[in-house]
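Structure tokens please, single chain.
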Amino acid sequence: MPTKTRRYRPAKNVINYVDKTARIGRNVKIWHFAYVGSDTVIGDNVMIGSLSHIDYKVRIGDNTRIEGCVYIPPLTIIGRDVFIGPAATFTNDPYPKSKRLAGLVIEDGAVIGARSVFRPGIRIGKNSVVAMGSVVTKDVPEEMVVIGNPARVAYSRQEYEKKKEKWETSPETKTI
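Here you go.
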């Protein structure tokens, strides 16, 4: 994580808002119309997609990729090497408009599928996977894959990696 405040300079022709108190690491890419709030700390080699909203007092670890249209509320802690798919939504207020907020913790190596929704105050375990469209209402164990509404454990990360490898090496798979 960066130890000193550096002024973030967006790429040419990219419009976004990064609060002057945010601490931004090296080689960080923040795309069009993204917002980064006050006192947020972003590690090295992080990518934040267009239209994403990273609120205040958020911590994001090195080598994390946050796709477009993601909402990350205040007090959220995101580990290293995390992937967050498009339009994932994390919440921090179980009883809106409460005066008390509860951040989330997403541990190192987690994979978050597109359009997943998360209840406040939960922990997404190390190297876990949340399938796209899941509604996560309780903690996700380390090294497990959760699926559905509400999200439930379906299989292990090891099984996920086997399925991923099969998909990537299948002759029917069209590559880009």
